[in-house]
Amino acid sequence: MKHGKRFNHLSRIPSHRKAMLSNMASSLILEKQISTTLAKAKALRKFVEPLITKSKNDTTHSRRIVFSYLQNKHSVRELFDEVSQRISDRPGGYTRIIKLGNRLGDNANLCLIELIDFNQFTKESDADTAGKKKTRRRRKSKNKAPDSSKNAESKPNNKGVTKSKKKVESKSSKKNDNK
To answer: Which domain holds residue 163?
Structure first.
């Protein structure tokens, strides 16, 4: 029975599981996204999100705690310097899992796990929408409708006149050329 077993053991002994999650977390922090199986990604999410939360408080004690999990000084430096700056205002949910399909060899569910604030494609689309002011489309009010018709009546339409003159001139010039 599976009473009180709150995490996926991933068919590994505890030391192997801890080392694997540590290496995957270091790779995720350094590379910002990695491709893995769905089960490993879900286990990695539970492993790495408390570490990212811990990085918001940049003290020696929190750095040592994170280093005890990651065992990689480069990833700890990256986490506290770059990652914590971008996620400082986010209350949680620092990772995103995107399902990719099944692996050909063993039909395992593959996915992409990434740090949310480092996705280049969504950053570009967010920057495009941030510059534009969002407007709500409404019906034209009754006050504006008569004004626009008055403006249209007061301005003569010169375009139609010039086009018809050009057509007449071109026809008459063709008749003169034929004679």
So the answer is: 148-178
